[in-house]
Amino acid sequence: MLRNKTALITGSNRGIGRAMVEIFAQKGAHIIAHARKETEDFIEFVKKTETSCNTTIDMVFFDLRDTLSMRNELKKFVLGKNNIDILVNNAGVGHGVSFLRTPVSQIKEVYDINLFSAMEITQIVLRKMCLQKSGSIINITSVSGIDLSAGNSAYGTAKAALAAWTKTLAAELGAFNIRVNAIAPGLIETSMGKSVKDFVEKRMIEECALKRKGSPYEIAEIAAFLASDNSSFINGMEIIANGGKI
Ligand SMILES: NC(=O)c1ccc[n+]([C@@H]2O[C@H](COP(=O)([O-])OP(=O)(O)OC[C@H]3O[C@@H](n4cnc5c(N)ncnc54)[C@H](OP(=O)(O)O)[C@@H]3O)[C@@H](O)[C@H]2O)c1
After folding, report:
1. Residue 90 Cα, ligand 1 centroid: separation in angstroms?
2. Using CA atoms, how far apart are residues 143 and 24, in angstroms rounded to an integer?
3. Can you list the residues of the chain whose pLDDT is less than 50?
4. Which fold has domain 6-236?
5. What pLDDT score was predicted for residue 197?
């Protein structure tokens, strides 16, 4: 499904990003796997996945808040001869605190990680995709950006902006044969999913038609579909993956 395609996936050392590396590799993609830090665990995971899926995975390391290092580290891939066919802006950070207890400086940091870093990376990768005249960009938003309940002034509004930007970018880039879509997960079994307060988790599972959390692999499969040519006429959409809400 993804053979002969190269995918850059951010935040791929754990959680949903790590599941995406596994699923994309199984489907034949060459991967540029981003992580904040070079750890033994990540390197071992990459090597194992390369061997078991018979593909190649390059690694790239930078903190999403460090724009200079992001530009330097991505330069070699953008200037290299290989295409970048798929970009998944997956990395993100949660924040569920009331507005009254959140300094604006913290809201800015949440926006930097969840929104502005995705914009920066996309601008860098677009240099290549616009020349190629093809590409699929997938932004990982959240149901928190749709339901916008209490405590979501930072994270929820940043994800809402990411979803809105997805639509405007899709409209701009269609002429270059570049599609831009988003996936809005509900509660997913990752460290971020586990970090929500007990009463929030209980409410989300009660309100979920399937009465459970999602698996990171369920989100990765949707991303693989959006990345592939099987979704070639889907553009500017935000797919909600929350098990259905009652
Ligand atoms: N889990 C859920 O319930 C859920 C629901 C809706 C949406 N989402 C979205 O899904 C995406 C993936 O979430 P997840 O559940 O997989 O979360 P996770 O397990 O907490 O993983 C987050 C990833 O983002 C990376 N990251 C965070 N801040 C970074 C920074 N400053 N620089 C570089 N990397 C950074 C983390 O790297 P480190 O390991 O170095 O921290 C990690 O790889 C996020 O955009 C999240 O908002 C998740």
Report:
1. 7
2. 24
3. none
4. Rossmann fold (3.40.50)
5. 87
CB of 192 closer than 6 angstroms to any ligand 1 atom: yes
Ligand 1, atom 21, lies closest to the CA of 15
Cα 100 off chain centre by:
29
pTM of the model: 0.98
Span from the CA of 91 to the centroid of ligand 1 (angstroms): 4
Integer Rg of the chain from CA: 17
Residues 19-34 as b or e (16 or more Cβ within 10 Å = b): bbbbbbbbbebbbbbb
Please state the domain extents for the chain.
Answer: 6-236
Q: Is 96 close to ligand 1, i.e. is its CB under 6 Å away?
A: no
What is the Cα–Cα distance from 162 to 121, expressed in whole angstroms? 13
Q: 């971020």: which residue's tokens?
A: 192
- CB-count exposure of residue 199 (10 Å: 0-12, 13-18, 19+): exposed
115 lines ligand 1 (CB under 6 A): no
